[in-house]
Amino acid sequence: MGKRFSKLYLRTFKWKYNDFPDVDKAVVLMAPHTSMWDFVLGKIYFSAQGRQATILIKKEAFFWPVGYFLKKMGGIPVDRGRRTGLAEKAIESFEKATDRFYLVITPEGTRKKTKNWKKGFLRIAKAANVPVVLGFLDCKTRSMGVIGLLDMSGTDEEIMERMKRSYIGKTGVYKDKFETGYE
Questions:
Q1: pLDDT tens across 47-56, in order?
Q2: Which of 77, 121, 139, 159 is the most buried (most CB within 10 A)?
Q3: CB atoms within 10 A of CB 4
Q4: Is residue 4 part of a domain?
Q5: Is residue 68 part of a domain?
Q6: Alpha-helix residue ranges (DSSP H) falling in the chain
C-alpha cells in the first residue's frame, strides 16, 4: 500500500490523524481493538506515515487465502493457546533490526470486551530497551494516530493503569466491545 494512496484514502473518508513520533524502534500499542477493520485502518495509518509495521495476529486469522495477504502485510500468527516463546522472539527481532522496527500489539489481546489487558508488551519493551508508543483508533471522532509515549516508570501495575487511562473515551468500530475499566 503506497503512502500517497493511504493519505488519499484517509482524506477521502474524512479520517484525521497525527504524526508518528520520531523513534526508530518501538512497541506500538493499538487500542481499542474491536474488529479486524482495526488492522486495515492501522496499516493505512502506518503506510500514510511511510512506515512498515510488524503486527501480532491470532493464528486463526491465517486461513487460506487471507493468511497469505496478512503475512505480506506484516502479520505474524500467534498461538494464544500455548507458550511459544513469542516475547523472546520479539526481543530478538528488536536486537537484530538494523533500521526501523515497529511491533504492533493490541493490549486487550482480544476483540471481545475485557478489563484484563495483557502485560507482555511491558516485558518486550523493557528487555529490548525500546519505548512504548500509545497508538489509537477512535471511530466516534474518525481519528487515529498516537496519544504519546508511555511513561515506563513505576511498577507494572502503575504503568498498566496509566496506559489504560490514556484510552478512556476512545471508541472502537464496535463501541460496546471496548472497556478500560476506568470509565
A1: 999 998 887 7
A2: 121
A3: 10
A4: yes
A5: no
A6: 3-12, 37-48, 66-72, 86-96, 120-128, 156-166
82, three cell numbers? 500455548
Whether 49 is in a domain gets the answer yes
Tally of domains within the chain? 1
For residue 8, give the C-alpha cell: 488519499
C-alpha cell at 148: 504519546
- Is 106 within a domain? no
Q: How far out from the chain centre does Cα 24 lie? A: 16
Which band of pLDDT confidence, cut at 50, 70 and 90, is reported for residue 128?
A: very high
pLDDT band at 26 (very low <50, low <70, confident <90, very high): very high
CA distance 127 to 125: 6
Residue located via cell numbers 476506568: 182
The amino acid that residue 124 corresponds to is I
Single-letter residue type at 151 = D
